[in-house]
Design goal:
Helix content is 23%, strand content 27%. By secondary structure, it is α+β, with helices and mostly antiparallel strands. The protein has a five-stranded antiparallel sheet with strand order 7-10-15-12-13, with no helix packed on it. A hairpin with an 8-residue loop joins β3 and β4. α1 packs antiparallel against α3 (90-99). The chain is elongated and about 85 Å long.
Amino acid sequence: MKRDYVFNDSIQRIKWRRKQNYDVSYLMNYAKDRGAYYLQLEDDILSQYNFVSEIFKFVQKSNNDLESRWKMIEFSPLGFIGKLFRTKDLPIFISMFLWFSEYKPLDLIHNYVFDIIACDPSKNIKLCKPNLMKVKIEYKPSLFQHIGLKSSLKGKIQKLKDKKFVHKIPIKKHLNPDATLSTSLKFYQGHTFNKLYFGIDYCWINEGTGNDNIIINFKEKFLLKGYIIKSGASLHPEDKIPINSTLEIKLFENQNKSKSKNLYQTEDEYLQIDRMESDSGEMIKNLNQSFWYDIKSLRLKIPNFTANKWILIYEFGVF
């Protein structure tokens, strides 16, 4: 094993980065005759929820750009994460990784390919930049964030983060009926329940009294056939509606209440139709037609909210 005169890396680290070059070369060689594109990812990353559709749209846009001669699209600036190639272009990268595996890590080696393709070495590097941007395209904001800490190199802690990465929480919009909303809860940075109900934003609760409600008073009689409520998210998996929270309805006047006789009724005449009995953070149900109700009000009751456990609701629909 040759001494490293560039980075002064240990023999152990040289072997590790060389193996990384070999591993990626093997994967690329396997993929080069399969499919049209190759995307390099790792197992310790966080992705935007819509990353596949975003990549497809951006690739199509780039392919239609007559000025573009792209060889790689970078969906993350970190290391070798989120790099997309056409499979027909992989052989040149494979060759470079294998040729220079003993000298540098692959996330540095791959940049030499673009220098060769796009730059005149006799000219100033600044003159190369416009041409370089046509072969190596950067997508912003990035679609991937590195969240792992332990490297495959023993003893190495990897704290690499993309500081500009903003994780988007998925919002599933529903055409909820017009209503007036009220609650005893308080919300973090304007992520209110009103915005969630009308499909604008997610709802993030950070303060309550310990015995809280979200009340929806419908402006017209509403026939309830089902509902879907989802809480927690990939970045905040613990921010769920707590166990023993209940979903309750108040019936519209002058309707047959015999079908609701088996439902628990509160002192203020709400009927309990669901209870959170697990830590799934979800309430989802299509009601049997025999249990469709004309209602004037719906209430989500959260009896045991504590400030050390916030609640993030990203989907709320009644139908």
